[in-house]
Amino acid sequence: MKRIDFLKQVALLLAGSAFLPKLKFLQDSNFTELRNGVGIFTMQGGTIGWFTTEDAIVAIDSQYPDPAGNFISGISNFGGGPEKVLFNTHHHGDHTGGNSVFEENSYQIIGHANVPDLMRMSAEGSDNQPTVPGTTFEEQYDMDMGNETIHAKHYGPAHTGGDSVIWFENANVAHMGDLMFNRLYPFIDRGGGALIANWITTLENVVSEANSDTQFIFGHGNPEFGVTGSGDDLLHMRDFLSHLMEYTRRGIAEGHSKEELMDIESFDEFPNFISPSDFLSLSRNVDVAYRELTEEE
Ligand SMILES: [Zn+2]
Protein backbone atom coordinates (compact mmCIF):
# COMPACT_ATOMS: atom_id res chain seq x y z
CA MET A 1 0.00 0.00 0.00
CA LYS A 2 1.29 3.46 -0.86
CA ARG A 3 1.93 5.58 2.19
CA ILE A 4 -0.63 8.19 1.16
CA ASP A 5 -3.34 5.49 0.83
CA PHE A 6 -2.34 4.17 4.23
CA LEU A 7 -2.68 7.65 5.73
CA LYS A 8 -6.10 8.06 4.12
CA GLN A 9 -7.20 4.79 5.67
CA VAL A 10 -5.92 5.92 9.03
CA ALA A 11 -7.82 9.20 8.66
CA LEU A 12 -11.02 7.27 7.88
CA LEU A 13 -10.50 4.97 10.83
CA LEU A 14 -9.94 7.92 13.13
CA ALA A 15 -13.01 9.73 11.80
CA GLY A 16 -15.13 6.63 12.37
CA SER A 17 -14.08 6.32 15.98
CA ALA A 18 -13.99 10.02 16.81
CA PHE A 19 -16.57 9.68 19.56
CA LEU A 20 -14.95 6.71 21.25
CA PRO A 21 -13.00 7.33 24.44
CA LYS A 22 -9.76 6.19 22.89
CA LEU A 23 -6.46 7.68 21.95
CA LYS A 24 -5.48 5.92 18.80
CA PHE A 25 -2.48 7.78 17.48
CA LEU A 26 -1.05 5.36 14.97
CA GLN A 27 2.73 5.37 14.89
CA ASP A 28 5.51 3.03 13.86
CA SER A 29 6.34 0.66 16.66
CA ASN A 30 9.32 1.99 18.53
CA PHE A 31 11.46 0.80 21.47
CA THR A 32 13.52 3.36 23.40
CA GLU A 33 15.76 2.38 26.33
CA LEU A 34 15.83 4.94 29.15
CA ARG A 35 18.33 3.47 31.65
CA ASN A 36 19.18 0.36 33.75
CA GLY A 37 17.12 -1.97 31.55
CA VAL A 38 14.01 0.22 31.70
CA GLY A 39 12.48 1.63 28.52
CA ILE A 40 9.37 2.61 26.62
CA PHE A 41 7.50 1.29 23.60
CA THR A 42 5.18 3.47 21.55
CA MET A 43 2.86 2.48 18.74
CA GLN A 44 -0.87 2.95 19.31
CA GLY A 45 -2.43 3.92 22.64
CA GLY A 46 -0.93 4.60 26.06
CA THR A 47 2.86 4.38 26.33
CA ILE A 48 4.11 0.89 27.28
CA GLY A 49 6.92 0.78 29.85
CA TRP A 50 9.26 -2.21 30.08
CA PHE A 51 12.09 -3.73 32.10
CA THR A 52 14.18 -6.79 31.31
CA THR A 53 16.63 -8.85 33.38
CA GLU A 54 18.15 -12.31 32.94
CA ASP A 55 15.19 -13.69 34.86
CA ALA A 56 12.22 -11.68 33.75
CA ILE A 57 10.35 -9.32 31.46
CA VAL A 58 8.11 -6.70 33.05
CA ALA A 59 5.71 -4.68 30.88
CA ILE A 60 3.45 -1.81 31.90
CA ASP A 61 0.22 -1.48 29.91
CA SER A 62 -0.70 -3.37 26.77
CA GLN A 63 -2.09 -0.87 24.20
CA TYR A 64 -4.12 -2.95 21.68
CA PRO A 65 -3.73 -6.49 20.29
CA ASP A 66 -1.57 -5.51 17.28
CA PRO A 67 0.93 -3.38 19.17
CA ALA A 68 0.96 -5.98 21.96
CA GLY A 69 2.10 -8.55 19.39
CA ASN A 70 4.79 -6.19 18.09
CA PHE A 71 5.95 -5.50 21.63
CA ILE A 72 6.17 -9.17 22.60
CA SER A 73 8.20 -10.11 19.53
CA GLY A 74 10.43 -7.00 19.70
CA ILE A 75 11.24 -7.05 23.41
CA SER A 76 13.25 -10.26 22.91
CA ASN A 77 15.98 -8.05 21.37
CA PHE A 78 16.52 -6.60 24.83
CA GLY A 79 16.92 -9.98 26.56
CA GLY A 80 14.69 -11.02 29.39
CA GLY A 81 14.16 -14.28 31.21
CA PRO A 82 11.29 -16.70 31.66
CA GLU A 83 9.25 -14.86 34.30
CA LYS A 84 6.77 -12.49 32.64
CA VAL A 85 4.68 -9.81 34.30
CA LEU A 86 2.30 -7.16 32.93
CA PHE A 87 1.07 -4.28 35.07
CA ASN A 88 -2.05 -2.34 34.05
CA THR A 89 -1.82 1.30 35.26
CA HIS A 90 -5.65 1.56 34.96
CA HIS A 91 -8.58 0.01 33.11
CA HIS A 92 -8.90 2.08 29.90
CA GLY A 93 -8.92 0.21 26.59
CA ASP A 94 -5.88 1.97 25.16
CA HIS A 95 -3.86 0.57 28.12
CA THR A 96 -5.47 -2.87 28.50
CA GLY A 97 -6.72 -3.75 24.99
CA GLY A 98 -3.71 -5.98 24.36
CA ASN A 99 -4.03 -7.92 27.67
CA SER A 100 -5.29 -11.09 25.95
CA VAL A 101 -2.16 -11.24 23.80
CA PHE A 102 0.07 -10.90 26.86
CA GLU A 103 -1.94 -13.58 28.67
CA GLU A 104 -1.57 -15.96 25.73
CA ASN A 105 2.17 -15.38 26.05
CA SER A 106 2.21 -16.42 29.73
CA TYR A 107 2.35 -12.96 31.32
CA GLN A 108 0.92 -12.65 34.86
CA ILE A 109 -1.33 -9.54 34.85
CA ILE A 110 -1.38 -7.25 37.91
CA GLY A 111 -3.53 -4.17 38.57
CA HIS A 112 -5.30 -2.18 41.24
CA ALA A 113 -8.28 -3.92 42.88
CA ASN A 114 -10.80 -1.70 41.06
CA VAL A 115 -9.43 -2.41 37.59
CA PRO A 116 -11.23 -5.73 36.87
CA ASP A 117 -14.71 -4.34 37.67
CA LEU A 118 -14.05 -1.09 35.80
CA MET A 119 -12.93 -3.12 32.76
CA ARG A 120 -16.07 -5.28 32.92
CA MET A 121 -18.24 -2.17 33.30
CA SER A 122 -16.64 -0.57 30.23
CA ALA A 123 -17.15 -3.76 28.21
CA GLU A 124 -20.87 -4.04 29.04
CA GLY A 125 -22.94 -4.31 25.91
CA SER A 126 -20.01 -5.44 23.77
CA ASP A 127 -19.31 -9.03 22.71
CA ASN A 128 -15.73 -8.91 23.89
CA GLN A 129 -15.01 -10.21 27.36
CA PRO A 130 -12.04 -8.25 28.69
CA THR A 131 -8.90 -9.99 29.95
CA VAL A 132 -8.64 -8.57 33.47
CA PRO A 133 -5.71 -8.66 35.93
CA GLY A 134 -5.59 -11.98 37.78
CA THR A 135 -3.58 -10.44 40.63
CA THR A 136 -4.81 -7.26 42.32
CA PHE A 137 -3.81 -5.02 45.23
CA GLU A 138 -5.43 -2.24 47.26
CA GLU A 139 -2.55 0.07 48.19
CA GLN A 140 0.82 -1.25 47.13
CA TYR A 141 2.33 -4.29 45.42
CA ASP A 142 6.07 -5.02 45.75
CA MET A 143 8.24 -7.22 43.59
CA ASP A 144 12.00 -7.97 43.49
CA MET A 145 13.44 -8.71 40.05
CA GLY A 146 17.20 -9.34 40.01
CA ASN A 147 18.79 -6.15 41.30
CA GLU A 148 15.65 -4.08 40.70
CA THR A 149 12.81 -3.49 43.15
CA ILE A 150 9.48 -2.64 41.60
CA HIS A 151 6.48 -1.31 43.43
CA ALA A 152 3.02 -0.41 42.14
CA LYS A 153 1.20 2.14 44.28
CA HIS A 154 -2.38 3.46 44.34
CA TYR A 155 -2.84 7.06 45.57
CA GLY A 156 -6.65 7.17 45.55
CA PRO A 157 -9.05 8.22 42.76
CA ALA A 158 -7.59 10.58 40.15
CA HIS A 159 -7.77 9.94 36.36
CA THR A 160 -10.00 6.93 37.21
CA GLY A 161 -10.91 5.08 40.39
CA GLY A 162 -8.13 2.53 39.88
CA ASP A 163 -4.87 4.26 38.91
CA SER A 164 -1.44 3.14 39.97
CA VAL A 165 2.09 4.42 39.51
CA ILE A 166 4.74 1.76 38.81
CA TRP A 167 8.12 2.58 40.35
CA PHE A 168 11.50 1.07 39.40
CA GLU A 169 13.43 1.99 42.52
CA ASN A 170 17.02 1.36 41.42
CA ALA A 171 16.61 2.79 37.92
CA ASN A 172 14.71 5.68 39.53
CA VAL A 173 12.04 5.59 36.83
CA ALA A 174 8.27 5.74 37.41
CA HIS A 175 5.44 5.02 34.95
CA MET A 176 2.55 7.42 35.61
CA GLY A 177 -0.06 5.87 33.31
CA ASP A 178 -2.72 8.48 32.53
CA LEU A 179 -2.03 10.45 35.67
CA MET A 180 0.09 12.33 33.14
CA PHE A 181 -1.18 13.83 29.90
CA ASN A 182 1.91 15.90 29.10
CA ARG A 183 0.63 19.26 27.77
CA LEU A 184 -2.59 17.64 26.49
CA TYR A 185 -6.08 18.28 27.83
CA PRO A 186 -6.62 15.12 29.88
CA PHE A 187 -9.44 12.63 29.82
CA ILE A 188 -11.07 12.81 33.28
CA ASP A 189 -13.20 9.68 33.66
CA ARG A 190 -15.82 10.76 36.21
CA GLY A 191 -18.00 7.74 35.35
CA GLY A 192 -14.98 5.53 36.06
CA GLY A 193 -14.37 7.08 39.47
CA ALA A 194 -12.10 10.07 38.63
CA LEU A 195 -11.60 12.86 41.17
CA ILE A 196 -9.73 16.01 40.11
CA ALA A 197 -9.17 17.26 43.68
CA ASN A 198 -7.31 14.06 44.59
CA TRP A 199 -5.52 13.95 41.23
CA ILE A 200 -3.86 17.26 42.25
CA THR A 201 -2.79 15.77 45.61
CA THR A 202 -1.59 12.58 43.92
CA LEU A 203 0.80 14.46 41.62
CA GLU A 204 2.21 16.30 44.66
CA ASN A 205 2.61 13.06 46.60
CA VAL A 206 4.40 11.36 43.70
CA VAL A 207 6.80 14.31 43.32
CA SER A 208 7.50 14.24 47.08
CA GLU A 209 8.49 10.55 46.77
CA ALA A 210 10.79 11.26 43.81
CA ASN A 211 13.96 13.32 43.44
CA SER A 212 15.48 15.59 40.80
CA ASP A 213 16.96 12.59 38.95
CA THR A 214 13.69 10.61 38.69
CA GLN A 215 12.58 9.96 35.11
CA PHE A 216 8.83 9.70 34.54
CA ILE A 217 6.96 7.89 31.77
CA PHE A 218 3.65 9.44 30.73
CA GLY A 219 0.55 7.70 29.32
CA HIS A 220 0.19 10.38 26.67
CA GLY A 221 1.96 13.52 25.54
CA ASN A 222 1.78 16.47 23.21
CA PRO A 223 4.16 15.26 20.43
CA GLU A 224 6.20 18.44 20.86
CA PHE A 225 6.86 17.58 24.55
CA GLY A 226 6.96 13.79 24.49
CA VAL A 227 6.00 10.95 26.80
CA THR A 228 8.88 11.14 29.28
CA GLY A 229 9.95 13.92 31.63
CA SER A 230 10.64 15.09 35.15
CA GLY A 231 8.85 16.07 38.34
CA ASP A 232 8.56 19.60 36.95
CA ASP A 233 6.25 18.23 34.25
CA LEU A 234 4.10 16.61 36.95
CA LEU A 235 3.88 19.91 38.79
CA HIS A 236 2.91 21.68 35.57
CA MET A 237 0.04 19.20 35.16
CA ARG A 238 -0.84 19.76 38.84
CA ASP A 239 -0.92 23.53 38.18
CA PHE A 240 -3.19 23.02 35.15
CA LEU A 241 -5.67 20.95 37.18
CA SER A 242 -5.59 23.50 40.02
CA HIS A 243 -6.25 26.30 37.54
CA LEU A 244 -9.12 24.31 36.00
CA MET A 245 -10.73 23.89 39.43
CA GLU A 246 -10.16 27.55 40.35
CA TYR A 247 -11.62 28.81 37.03
CA THR A 248 -14.69 26.64 37.49
CA ARG A 249 -15.14 27.40 41.20
CA ARG A 250 -14.93 31.16 40.54
CA GLY A 251 -17.37 30.89 37.62
CA ILE A 252 -19.91 29.06 39.76
CA ALA A 253 -19.53 31.67 42.55
CA GLU A 254 -20.17 34.42 39.98
CA GLY A 255 -23.40 32.72 38.93
CA HIS A 256 -22.37 31.43 35.49
CA SER A 257 -24.04 28.37 34.00
CA LYS A 258 -22.07 25.25 33.12
CA GLU A 259 -22.61 25.98 29.42
CA GLU A 260 -21.17 29.48 29.78
CA LEU A 261 -18.11 28.15 31.59
CA MET A 262 -17.63 25.40 28.99
CA ASP A 263 -17.41 28.01 26.23
CA ILE A 264 -13.62 28.18 26.45
CA GLU A 265 -10.85 26.78 24.26
CA SER A 266 -7.68 27.46 26.25
CA PHE A 267 -6.23 29.10 29.34
CA ASP A 268 -3.74 31.92 28.61
CA GLU A 269 -1.60 30.55 31.46
CA PHE A 270 -1.22 27.12 29.76
CA PRO A 271 -0.52 27.89 26.08
CA ASN A 272 1.19 24.54 25.37
CA PHE A 273 -1.82 22.33 26.10
CA ILE A 274 -3.34 20.94 22.90
CA SER A 275 -6.61 19.28 22.03
CA PRO A 276 -5.91 16.37 19.64
CA SER A 277 -9.64 15.60 19.25
CA ASP A 278 -13.04 16.89 20.40
CA PHE A 279 -12.89 14.18 22.99
CA LEU A 280 -9.92 15.80 24.73
CA SER A 281 -10.68 19.48 25.17
CA LEU A 282 -10.65 22.15 27.84
CA SER A 283 -14.41 22.48 27.44
CA ARG A 284 -14.88 18.83 28.44
CA ASN A 285 -12.48 19.29 31.34
CA VAL A 286 -14.59 22.21 32.60
CA ASP A 287 -17.72 20.06 32.29
CA VAL A 288 -16.19 17.44 34.60
CA ALA A 289 -14.80 20.04 37.04
CA TYR A 290 -18.26 21.64 37.23
CA ARG A 291 -19.90 18.30 37.99
CA GLU A 292 -17.26 17.46 40.61
CA LEU A 293 -17.71 20.85 42.33
CA THR A 294 -21.52 20.71 42.26
CA GLU A 295 -21.67 16.93 42.85
CA GLU A 296 -23.81 16.59 39.76
CA GLU A 297 -23.67 13.11 38.17
ZN1 LIG B 1 -6.81 6.52 30.59
TrEMBL record:
PANTHER family documented for this protein: ACYL-COENZYME A THIOESTERASE MBLAC2, METALLO-BETA-LACTAMASE DOMAIN-CONTAINING
One Pfam family from the record: Lactamase_B
Family according to the record: Belongs to the metallo-beta-lactamase superfamily. Class-B beta-lactamase family.
Residues in coiled coil: none
Organism of origin: Rhodohalobacter sulfatireducens
Family matches, as CDD domains: metallo-hydrolase-like_MBL-fold
InterPro entries membership: Metallo-B-lactamas, NDM-1-like, RibonucZ/Hydroxyglut_hydro
Domain named Metallo-beta-lactamase: residues: 45-220
Protein name: MBL fold metallo-hydrolase
